[in-house]
Design brief:
The protein is an alpha+beta fold and 206 residues long. The chain contains 4 helices and 12 strands; from the N terminus they run H-E-E-E-E-E-H-E-E-E-E-H-E-E-E-H. It has a domain of 144 residues: Nucleoside Triphosphate Pyrophosphohydrolase (Alpha-Beta Complex), CATH 3.90.79. It is 20% helix and 34% strand. Strands 1, 2, 3, 4, 5, 6, 7, 8 and 9 form a 9-stranded mixed beta sheet that branches.
Length: 206
Protein backbone atom coordinates (compact mmCIF):
# COMPACT_ATOMS: atom_id res chain seq x y z
CA UNK A 1 0.00 0.00 0.00
CA UNK A 2 1.27 3.48 -0.93
CA UNK A 3 2.52 5.64 1.94
CA UNK A 4 3.27 9.33 1.46
CA UNK A 5 5.65 9.25 4.43
CA UNK A 6 7.58 6.44 2.75
CA UNK A 7 7.54 8.40 -0.54
CA UNK A 8 9.10 11.42 1.21
CA UNK A 9 11.73 9.28 2.91
CA UNK A 10 12.65 7.70 -0.39
CA UNK A 11 12.71 11.08 -2.12
CA UNK A 12 15.22 12.42 0.39
CA UNK A 13 17.42 9.37 -0.18
CA UNK A 14 17.07 8.64 -3.88
CA UNK A 15 16.43 11.93 -5.67
CA UNK A 16 19.53 13.62 -7.04
CA UNK A 17 20.84 16.55 -5.01
CA UNK A 18 22.10 18.39 -8.09
CA UNK A 19 20.88 18.63 -11.66
CA UNK A 20 23.20 16.34 -13.64
CA UNK A 21 24.53 16.80 -17.14
CA UNK A 22 23.62 14.53 -20.05
CA UNK A 23 20.64 12.20 -19.91
CA UNK A 24 19.80 8.74 -18.66
CA UNK A 25 16.58 7.96 -20.56
CA UNK A 26 14.83 9.08 -23.71
CA UNK A 27 11.87 8.71 -26.04
CA UNK A 28 13.92 6.14 -27.96
CA UNK A 29 14.29 3.75 -25.00
CA UNK A 30 11.26 1.69 -26.09
CA UNK A 31 12.17 2.11 -29.77
CA UNK A 32 15.70 0.79 -30.13
CA UNK A 33 15.01 -0.58 -33.60
CA UNK A 34 13.46 2.71 -34.79
CA UNK A 35 15.41 5.55 -33.16
CA UNK A 36 14.26 9.03 -34.15
CA UNK A 37 16.30 11.35 -31.92
CA UNK A 38 18.91 13.01 -34.14
CA UNK A 39 22.52 12.04 -33.54
CA UNK A 40 25.31 14.57 -33.37
CA UNK A 41 22.97 17.49 -32.61
CA UNK A 42 23.34 19.27 -29.28
CA UNK A 43 20.00 19.05 -27.44
CA UNK A 44 18.30 22.15 -26.05
CA UNK A 45 18.21 22.28 -22.22
CA UNK A 46 14.75 22.35 -20.66
CA UNK A 47 13.24 21.78 -17.22
CA UNK A 48 9.85 20.76 -15.87
CA UNK A 49 8.30 21.02 -12.42
CA UNK A 50 7.11 17.72 -10.97
CA UNK A 51 4.79 19.41 -8.47
CA UNK A 52 3.63 17.12 -5.66
CA UNK A 53 0.76 18.94 -3.95
CA UNK A 54 0.63 18.08 -0.25
CA UNK A 55 -3.14 17.65 0.10
CA UNK A 56 -4.78 15.12 2.42
CA UNK A 57 -4.36 12.80 -0.57
CA UNK A 58 -1.17 14.06 -2.26
CA UNK A 59 -1.44 14.77 -5.96
CA UNK A 60 0.73 15.67 -8.96
CA UNK A 61 -0.09 18.86 -10.85
CA UNK A 62 -0.27 18.49 -14.62
CA UNK A 63 -1.38 20.61 -17.56
CA UNK A 64 -3.16 19.96 -20.82
CA UNK A 65 -1.44 21.86 -23.60
CA UNK A 66 -3.49 24.25 -25.71
CA UNK A 67 -5.23 22.50 -28.60
CA UNK A 68 -4.01 25.14 -31.06
CA UNK A 69 -0.28 24.76 -30.41
CA UNK A 70 1.92 23.78 -33.34
CA UNK A 71 3.80 21.16 -31.27
CA UNK A 72 2.10 18.51 -29.12
CA UNK A 73 -1.34 20.16 -29.07
CA UNK A 74 -3.68 18.83 -26.41
CA UNK A 75 -1.07 16.60 -24.79
CA UNK A 76 -0.68 16.33 -21.03
CA UNK A 77 2.56 17.72 -19.64
CA UNK A 78 4.35 18.99 -16.59
CA UNK A 79 4.67 22.78 -16.38
CA UNK A 80 8.03 23.66 -17.88
CA UNK A 81 10.03 24.69 -20.89
CA UNK A 82 13.38 25.86 -22.20
CA UNK A 83 16.16 26.83 -19.80
CA UNK A 84 17.18 30.39 -20.65
CA UNK A 85 20.81 31.50 -20.69
CA UNK A 86 22.10 31.98 -17.15
CA UNK A 87 19.24 30.03 -15.55
CA UNK A 88 19.42 26.90 -13.46
CA UNK A 89 16.97 24.05 -13.99
CA UNK A 90 15.16 25.05 -10.78
CA UNK A 91 14.84 28.67 -11.87
CA UNK A 92 13.54 27.63 -15.29
CA UNK A 93 11.00 25.13 -13.90
CA UNK A 94 9.63 27.60 -11.35
CA UNK A 95 9.54 30.44 -13.90
CA UNK A 96 7.73 28.34 -16.48
CA UNK A 97 5.20 27.12 -13.90
CA UNK A 98 4.50 30.71 -12.93
CA UNK A 99 4.19 31.83 -16.56
CA UNK A 100 2.10 28.89 -17.76
CA UNK A 101 -0.31 28.34 -14.88
CA UNK A 102 0.32 31.15 -12.39
CA UNK A 103 1.87 28.93 -9.71
CA UNK A 104 3.84 31.30 -7.49
CA UNK A 105 7.36 30.01 -6.66
CA UNK A 106 6.87 30.59 -2.92
CA UNK A 107 4.48 27.62 -2.78
CA UNK A 108 7.18 25.19 -3.97
CA UNK A 109 9.96 23.53 -1.97
CA UNK A 110 12.40 21.59 -4.14
CA UNK A 111 13.09 18.00 -3.06
CA UNK A 112 15.63 17.10 -5.74
CA UNK A 113 16.05 16.05 -9.34
CA UNK A 114 15.44 13.11 -11.60
CA UNK A 115 18.00 12.18 -14.27
CA UNK A 116 17.43 14.25 -17.42
CA UNK A 117 15.20 12.85 -20.18
CA UNK A 118 15.89 13.33 -23.91
CA UNK A 119 12.82 13.88 -26.08
CA UNK A 120 12.31 13.07 -29.72
CA UNK A 121 12.18 16.84 -30.35
CA UNK A 122 15.78 16.99 -29.03
CA UNK A 123 15.16 18.67 -25.69
CA UNK A 124 17.10 17.36 -22.71
CA UNK A 125 14.63 17.85 -19.87
CA UNK A 126 15.59 18.02 -16.20
CA UNK A 127 12.64 17.10 -13.95
CA UNK A 128 12.64 19.21 -10.77
CA UNK A 129 10.66 17.45 -8.04
CA UNK A 130 9.04 19.79 -5.51
CA UNK A 131 6.50 19.74 -2.72
CA UNK A 132 3.78 22.32 -3.35
CA UNK A 133 1.80 23.73 -0.47
CA UNK A 134 -1.98 23.95 -1.05
CA UNK A 135 -3.64 27.36 -1.10
CA UNK A 136 -2.32 28.55 -4.47
CA UNK A 137 -4.56 30.12 -7.11
CA UNK A 138 -3.82 29.26 -10.72
CA UNK A 139 -4.10 31.58 -13.72
CA UNK A 140 -3.61 29.77 -17.02
CA UNK A 141 -1.75 31.25 -19.97
CA UNK A 142 -4.61 30.75 -22.40
CA UNK A 143 -2.54 30.46 -25.57
CA UNK A 144 -0.42 27.65 -24.08
CA UNK A 145 -2.54 25.77 -21.54
CA UNK A 146 -6.16 24.62 -21.83
CA UNK A 147 -6.39 23.15 -18.34
CA UNK A 148 -4.49 22.35 -15.16
CA UNK A 149 -5.52 19.36 -13.07
CA UNK A 150 -4.24 16.99 -10.39
CA UNK A 151 -3.77 13.22 -10.35
CA UNK A 152 -3.33 11.25 -7.10
CA UNK A 153 0.33 10.53 -6.45
CA UNK A 154 -0.60 7.02 -5.29
CA UNK A 155 -2.10 6.30 -8.73
CA UNK A 156 1.05 7.40 -10.54
CA UNK A 157 3.36 5.49 -8.20
CA UNK A 158 1.48 2.22 -8.79
CA UNK A 159 3.39 0.41 -11.58
CA UNK A 160 0.22 -1.48 -12.46
CA UNK A 161 -1.15 1.78 -13.88
CA UNK A 162 1.79 2.20 -16.27
CA UNK A 163 1.08 0.50 -19.61
CA UNK A 164 2.95 0.26 -22.89
CA UNK A 165 1.24 1.40 -26.05
CA UNK A 166 2.16 2.59 -29.53
CA UNK A 167 1.00 4.50 -32.54
CA UNK A 168 2.18 5.26 -36.03
CA UNK A 169 4.10 8.52 -36.32
CA UNK A 170 5.67 9.68 -39.58
CA UNK A 171 5.21 6.19 -40.98
CA UNK A 172 6.87 4.42 -38.05
CA UNK A 173 5.44 2.52 -35.11
CA UNK A 174 6.53 4.31 -31.95
CA UNK A 175 6.11 2.80 -28.49
CA UNK A 176 5.68 4.70 -25.23
CA UNK A 177 4.39 4.49 -21.66
CA UNK A 178 0.84 5.61 -20.91
CA UNK A 179 -1.22 6.17 -17.77
CA UNK A 180 -5.00 6.36 -18.18
CA UNK A 181 -6.63 8.33 -15.39
CA UNK A 182 -10.38 8.40 -15.99
CA UNK A 183 -10.71 9.91 -19.49
CA UNK A 184 -7.21 11.39 -19.57
CA UNK A 185 -4.24 9.73 -21.25
CA UNK A 186 -0.82 10.71 -19.93
CA UNK A 187 1.74 9.41 -22.39
CA UNK A 188 5.03 10.08 -24.17
CA UNK A 189 7.80 11.99 -22.40
CA UNK A 190 5.55 12.96 -19.47
CA UNK A 191 4.67 9.32 -18.81
CA UNK A 192 8.32 8.37 -19.24
CA UNK A 193 9.36 10.86 -16.55
CA UNK A 194 6.61 9.66 -14.21
CA UNK A 195 7.86 6.11 -14.71
CA UNK A 196 11.39 7.33 -13.99
CA UNK A 197 10.18 8.92 -10.75
CA UNK A 198 8.76 5.58 -9.66
CA UNK A 199 11.88 3.64 -10.70
CA UNK A 200 14.21 6.17 -9.00
CA UNK A 201 12.36 5.92 -5.67
CA UNK A 202 11.32 2.27 -5.78
CA UNK A 203 14.21 0.54 -7.57
CA UNK A 204 13.37 -2.87 -6.17
CA UNK A 205 9.96 -2.67 -7.91
CA UNK A 206 11.28 -1.34 -11.24
Amino acid sequence: MFSFEDFLARAKTHLLAQAPQGWKSSDDDLNASLPMIPEGVEPTPAAVLVAVVTRDEPTVLLTQRHSGLAKHPGQIAFPGGRVDAGETAVQAALREAQEEIGLEPDFSAVLGFLPPYLTVTNYVVTPVVALVQPGFTLSLQQDEVDEAFEVPLSFLMDPANCKRDGREWKGLKRHYYVYQFHQRFIWGATAGMIRNLHDQLYPQAA
